[in-house]
Amino acid sequence: MLKGRTAIVTGSGRGIGKAIAMKLASYGANIVINDIPSSEDADKTCEEIKSMGVEAIVIKGDVRNADDVKTLIDTTVKTFGSIDIFVNNAGITRDGLMLRMSEEDWDLVMDINLKGAFNCIKAVARPMMKQRKGSIINIASIVGVMGNAGQANYVASKAGLIGLTKTTAKEFSARGIRCNAVAPGFIQSAMTDVLSDDVKQKYFDSIPLGKFGNTEDIANVVAFLASDMSSYVTGQVINVDGGLVM
Ligand code: NAP
Questions:
Q1: What count of other Cβ atoms lies within 10 Å of the Cβ of residue 189?
Q2: pTM passes above 0.85
Q3: Does residue 67 contact residue 122 with C-beta atoms inside 8 Å?
């Protein structure tokens, strides 16, 4: 389904990003693993992917930094000749009630989750426009749709990412570039492992399908959006949340 295509996944050393990278590789795509410079997981993930019979490289860099992002894009084009799929997955949380939230925590989350995606879309749009083809997929969150107490920074960044998704779709559709968002619900990963049992139970009780999601649930929908099976889909937000938001 994706044989010969090239995909970049940001923050893909571990968690949801790793699952996405492995899923796209399982359909034949060559993979560029991006993660922060200090990541110890990125190289291990890259070796795992190479053992699946596709080409894979690691290009470390911080999505907040436009120079790092330029290197990510330029090196990928030089190595593989094209960029067909770009997944904005890198993201963090710094939770706290709004009255106690520091300016630093607000800025850090907005910088990585929203400005990072802006940097990447701006940089990848050029090679994709030249190719007149490309699929950009942004990993948002259902809290960006419904709000969440204690996550003002994170919710604002993900709601912003949904707006950025729709604007990207409108600006680049005529150039053959599609842009969609996936909004995960509660997915078991390092990001949710740290939540208290109380919070986990509250989420659990409100999920109609009666179970938490796993990283593969997100990867499956990303693979659909990356492929030609979704060639008439752009500007959409797909909730992958066991029915939590409906
Ligand atoms: P995770 O396990 O913490 O993975 C996030 C990855 O992003 C890590 O590899 C991290 O690197 C990397 N990263 C952080 N800052 C970066 C930067 N500035 N530049 C490049 N990479 C950076 O989290 P996850 O649960 O897999 O989440 C992945 C995405 O899904 C995030 O956007 C998150 O908001 C979204 N999401 C997750 C859930 C959930 O339930 N888990 C729900 C909704 C949305 P290090 O490991 O080196 O820190």
A1: 19
A2: yes
A3: no
